[in-house]
From TrEMBL:
<feature type="repeat" description="TPR">
    <location>
        <begin position="608"/>
        <end position="641"/>
    </location>
</feature>
<dbReference type="InterPro" id="IPR019734">
    <property type="entry name" value="TPR_rpt"/>
</dbReference>
<feature type="transmembrane region" description="Helical">
    <location>
        <begin position="353"/>
        <end position="372"/>
    </location>
</feature>
<keyword id="KW-0808">Transferase</keyword>
<feature type="transmembrane region" description="Helical">
    <location>
        <begin position="144"/>
        <end position="163"/>
    </location>
</feature>
<keyword id="KW-0812">Transmembrane</keyword>
<keyword id="KW-0802">TPR repeat</keyword>
<feature type="transmembrane region" description="Helical">
    <location>
        <begin position="411"/>
        <end position="430"/>
    </location>
</feature>
<dbReference type="InterPro" id="IPR013618">
    <property type="entry name" value="TMTC_DUF1736"/>
</dbReference>
<dbReference type="GO" id="GO:0005783">
    <property type="term" value="C:endoplasmic reticulum"/>
</dbReference>
<keyword id="KW-0256">Endoplasmic reticulum</keyword>
<feature type="transmembrane region" description="Helical">
    <location>
        <begin position="201"/>
        <end position="218"/>
    </location>
</feature>
<dbReference type="GO" id="GO:0030968">
    <property type="term" value="P:endoplasmic reticulum unfolded protein response"/>
</dbReference>
<keyword id="KW-1133">Transmembrane helix</keyword>
<keyword id="KW-0677">Repeat</keyword>
<protein>
    <recommendedName>
        <fullName>dolichyl-phosphate-mannose--protein mannosyltransferase</fullName>
        <ecNumber>2.4.1.109</ecNumber>
    </recommendedName>
</protein>
<keyword id="KW-0472">Membrane</keyword>
Amino acid sequence: MAQSEFNLDHEISWFVLPSYWAKIIVGLISCMCFANSYDGDFVFDDSEAIINNKDLRAETPLGDLWHHDFWGGKLSSNTSHKSYRPLTVLTFRINYLFAGGFHPVGFHVINIILHCAISVLMVDVFSILLGGLQYSSKGRRLNLAPKASLLAASLFAVHPVHTECVAGIVGRADLLCALFFLLSFLGYCKALRENKEGNHFSILWVLASVLLGAIALLCKEQGITVLGLNAVFDALVINKLNIVELIQKVLRKDKSLENVGLFKKGLLFRITLLLSGGATMLCLRWRIMGTGPPAFTEVDNPASFADSLFVRAINYNYYYSLNAWLLLCPWWLCFDWSMGCIPLIKSVSDWRIIALAALWFCLIALICQALCSQDSHKRRILTLGLGFLIIPFLPASNLFFRVGFVVAERVIYLPSIGYCMLLTYGFSLLSKQTKKKKMLAATVLGILLINVLRCVIRSNQWRSEEQLFRSALSVCPLNAKVHYNVGKNLADKGNQTAAIKYYREAVRLNPKYVHAMNNLGNILKERNELQEAEGLLSLAVQIQPDFAAAWMNLGIVQNSLRRFEEAEQSYWTAIKHRKKYPDCYYNLGRLESEALFLKAIKANPNAASYHGNLAVLYHRWGNLDLAKKHYEVSLKLDPAAPGTKENYSLLKRKLEQLQKKGDA
């Protein structure tokens, strides 16, 4: 199926290399950008999706993967986020099996390899998008834009916004989705190759493309959008459909409508296959999901909870402009953009309106050129560029359903294909207008080198949670979750004083941040600041009554304050909200045993064994002062009490060690 296509290479001052050399170079630079993340830790969401995910372990039946979400929870649960990505979880499980446990190196290496493979595939994809689909007499696909495809693939390979997908192990969902997305597109292109019998397309390859799209969907939800892009490519490139001309003829009820190409070359039949495949996938996906869409909270996506349609619309559009800015200038990157990082726009007087106005001005200008230009080649390139930029982004746009984030760098991995395509086309136009082509080429090369440097720096920040969380403080200082994660990281390392500072800031930024209140309350409890700890935990359960961990911790504090009945009630409330809660049952058992010992001592205060056993209980709990008191009473009543003398010696030794540490 030969097509005479416009060749951007005539206008671009860039390197001309054989296809295999171009792919080698793109593969190498993509590896160079992210290679330093290979020995990174499990960070951020990796803990929930990998370390705490029972679906990775051998004892979990493989069949459970098809009924669980990405995080290992049951899809039928009302608390599930409905992220159905069983094939991605399967690759994690294989990683875990071959590594013999949770060793992050193998996980990171696979991510880097996947990005390299995708970048190499982009050489072929961009050669089709920018140079057109044409085959030789021997049936080999021709690369009519070797320079343009190399440049666009290089821009894609080194884009810093991809760091989250590559250096963050959870980003494998986006990488696998992109891989099968591209294979589906290339398979569809192969379906459009004219065979020896003169047939214009292969039904088998169309069906294979739909199957690859389904596999992409099982890796991540964005995968289904490849079917829409295949349809757009078929209509605009293969059938050279002029959308404006088609609309005009429909409105005029022109009798020549059948001549515009809609019914020629099997286009309608192929689009029917794509639509049928997409509808089947959506129906099965909805059926598997079970209980309807996921339930997110206001802190996840505040704009979607706004009462005013105007506020929702204007903030959604502002989010789009931020995504566009991350593609244009990927310097300010953050692992999380929620919880106050981006305050809501509530009035047209907000200066940020300029950003979304600029976005729509550019988009409308590009759309007008894509639809109305007399140059068919320009129409094709701009339409495909906009298609790859917009269509894969639609599942994250809040247009069809609420999403659980404000801005997420990972979701623009696929849309960046359209951005790189448009940028390459813009470069070709500049190259055509200027006489200083070498200077322009040097500028583009400089941009590539800067992006490589930024990728190296950013992927290094993703190597540990401490670096990742601290890097976000300068980007999103208003994000309560950033301060919470910095505090949690410090607390895990034993630096409670510094952790308290960040937890307090998280609560100040978000007064309803129950997890920050819970963690801060725990630290204050350990520091014996019981009154403030109780206040924080009480507020946490008031805000979120089903927060089982906060109820249990409140019970521990109440127990320390000697309010045993209240403590018991808190423990039972925690168990009510989390049936399988062994820690809470343990604390409840401790509470009842203490109460019984105290009751026994009250009835017979001169029984040495009662005091001795209660001292052991306090000793185990870490209530060393009370343990010391009852050991001494027991020994006073019975100096030969079995075991009490040895336990008392151990306690005194521990108290001396603690005193020495305090003096140091």
